[in-house]
Specification:
The complex is a heterodimer.
Chain A lengths: L9 E6 L2 H11 L8 E6 L7 H9 L4 E6 L10 H19 L6 E5 L5 H18 L3 H10 L1
Parallel strand pairs in A: 1-2, 1-3, 3-4
Helix pairs in contact in A: 1-4
Chain B lengths: L1 E5 L2 H8 L4 E7 L2 H4 L5 H17 L5 E7 L5 H4 L3 H5 L3 E4 L3 H10 L5 E3 L1 E11 L2 E6 L15 H4 L16 E2 L2 E5 L1 H11 L38
Parallel strand pairs in B: 2-3, 2-4, 4-5
Antiparallel strand pairs in B: 1-6, 6-7, 8-9
The chains are: A alpha/beta, B alpha/beta.
Bound molecules: iron/sulfur cluster (2 copies).
The site of one iron/sulfur cluster (SF4) has 12 residues of chain B, from helix 2 and helix 6.
């Protein structure tokens, strides 16, 4: 496995409140963040579901993260805490699968924190780059040449 | 309802063995409510298995289907085709659902994806508690509606043992002493005289001790053809 030039594919789930606003703020302030992050909006991170996360990995994501409002500031009161609990469960599941729970993470930030949004994207990109490509994708590549 | 808990992924993979085509069969009733084997859990397990087999370098075809109830013929009949096409069926129903599939589809290899744990209820979201052991002769009428068979660690019939302490059971301080609960409830409802009513030894022959049980209701049976 060579990490040279490996550009990880990352899926980021975010709530339409703080998470998406933080992405927007990063854009408005022209704070650069890695382009390999695909954004998926959720009505609230309380809608975080292991099925969505696993599906992202099945479709070739090397890493996944969830961006929520700060704890105590969720638009739906405690949806982000529910989302956090599901992320923890899914991390264990990823360990059991053999993909490794560290390919999944959760970040909390407010809508104005464009820099925190960019930092999360960078942190995940760097983490996944050092972990290497998802073995799922490697298999798909082996099969398709 | 029936409460179950999913087996670890590793154990489910072992049960699947070398099978190439795997069907994960969910049940949409009891085990869906306890989030162990409903549609969502069946989809999560199917996805997790597909990923795990790929990581192992040995991908398989894993599909999933959930029926309303796995313990009744009419609900599982629509699965016939998918079961026939699979090398193994991982049932996410309770043990009853697994065996109903086995009886209906005798040619198929069916394995359990759950440990069927107890008869109980969701006390709050995410917490399930045992409430009944299907003893066959219910005594809730004299125990203030609190079951000493399922909820007293020693299944005592005539009051608490010496290990009842501050309302907790000596077996584990997380367990509430059923007889303490019974006493308090009888006291509040002014029926403490029931505490003094002697309960003779229980007839366990109507419970599991009498072997597998069966109920026949002639008024409900479909009459045999004459
Ligand atoms: S199969 Fe088991 S879990 Fe499903 S409805 Fe029947 S008793 Fe409940
Ligand atoms: S007395 Fe028997 S039937 Fe009644 S709740 Fe307890 S175990 Fe169930």
């Amino acid at each position: 496995m060579s990490d040279n030039g490996f550009e990880p594919q990352i899926t980021a789930f975010m709530c339409i409140y703080c998470g998406y606003m933080a992405a927007d703020t990063a854009g408005a302030l022209r704070i650069p963040y890695p382009a390999n992050v695909k954004l998926v909006k959720l009505p609230c991170t309380g809608k975080t579901d292991p099925r969505y996360i696993l599906q992202a990995f099945e479709e070739g994501a090397d890493g996944v993260y969830v961006v929520a409002c700060p704890v105590g500031n969720c638009h739906h009161v405690r949806g982000n805490e529910r989302g956090y609990a599901r992320v923890q469960r899914t991390k264990k599941l990823l360990d059991a699968i053999g993909l490794g729970g560290e390919r999944l993470e959760m970040f909390f930030m407010s809508g104005g924190q464009g820099q925190a949004f960019a930092d999360a994207a960078k942190e995940m990109t760097e983490r996944i780059r050092s972990l290497g490509p998802s073995p799922i994708k490697e298999r798909v590549n082996e099969l398709t040449g | 309802m029936i409460i179950g808990e999913q087996k670890p992924l590793e154990e489910i993979k072992e049960l699947i063995g070398d099978a190439r085509k795997v069907l994960v069969a969910g049940c949409g009733t009891c085990v869906a409510v306890c989030s162990a084997g409903g549609e969502r859990e069946a989809q999560i397990l199917a996805s997790a298995l597909r990923l795990a087999f790929q990581v192992d370098g040995n991908s398989r075809e894993v599909t999933e289907a959930t029926v309303q109830r796995q313990c009744e013929w009419e609900y599982i009949d629509p699965l016939a085709e998918q079961v026939a096409e699979s090398d193994v069926v991982v049932s996410l129903a309770c043990g009853i659902g697994v065996q109903t599939l086995v009886e209906r589809f005798p040619e198929a290899w069916i394995v359990p994806g759950l440990n069927t744990t107890f008869l109980g209820m969701p006390q709050e979201q995410g917490i399930w508690v045992e409430r009944c052991q299907a003893c066959g002769q219910c005594i809730l009428g004299v125990t203030a509606g609190i079951c000493p068979i399922a909820r007293c660690s020693k299944q005592l019939l005539n009051g608490p043992c010496g290990g009842s302490h501050d309302g907790k059971c000596e077996v584990n301080p997380d367990i509430e002493c059923a007889w303490h609960l019974i006493y308090e409830r009888l006291r509040k409802l002014g029926k403490l005289e029931l505490m003094l009513r002697f309960q003779p030894a229980k007839d366990w022959s109507v419970s599991r001790d009498g072997g597998p049980r069966r109920i026949v209701r002639e008024d409900l049976r479909v009459l045999p053809e004459t």
